[in-house]
Design goal:
The chain is of the alpha+beta class. It folds into two domains: 59 residues, no CATH class; 60 residues, Orthogonal Bundle (Topoisomerase I, Chain A, domain 4). It is built from three helices and five strands, in the order ββααβαββ. The strands form two sheets. The chain has a three-stranded antiparallel sheet, with helices on one face. The two termini are 21 Å apart. The N terminus is likely disordered.
Amino acid sequence: MDWTSFSGWHRSGGRFASDSPARRRFAFSPSGSKNKYERIFLDKPFEGSVKQTVSELLDGKFEPELVLRKRLRRKLSDYVKNVPPHVQAARKAESIRKQRNLPSMYESGGWIEYVMTANGPEPRHFRESAIAQ
């Protein structure tokens, strides 16, 4: 966790704000989430809104917002000791592409789009598992 950043409710201004306009590690931010935070901080009823968001999430409405996009800065074979999720997804994509006789896309680096599923990270275009809950 990065403790140098701030997100929260400004009492004087009566608004929700963050000092970081783009947080790459948090992919899911459905439209209207600012309103949900405001309801919580202003002690207004929010349970119905949260239940609706969870229902829509499980129905797949926010699936495009759950996609993570990361850069592979090295060759896939160079990731040995530490294998981050985007590398795992790229390796799965390369395996599927090889099975389908498609050319390699990630062996030498590039950008990968993936989602976190019940079975770990999977490439966006070759996802086989349900979205992680």
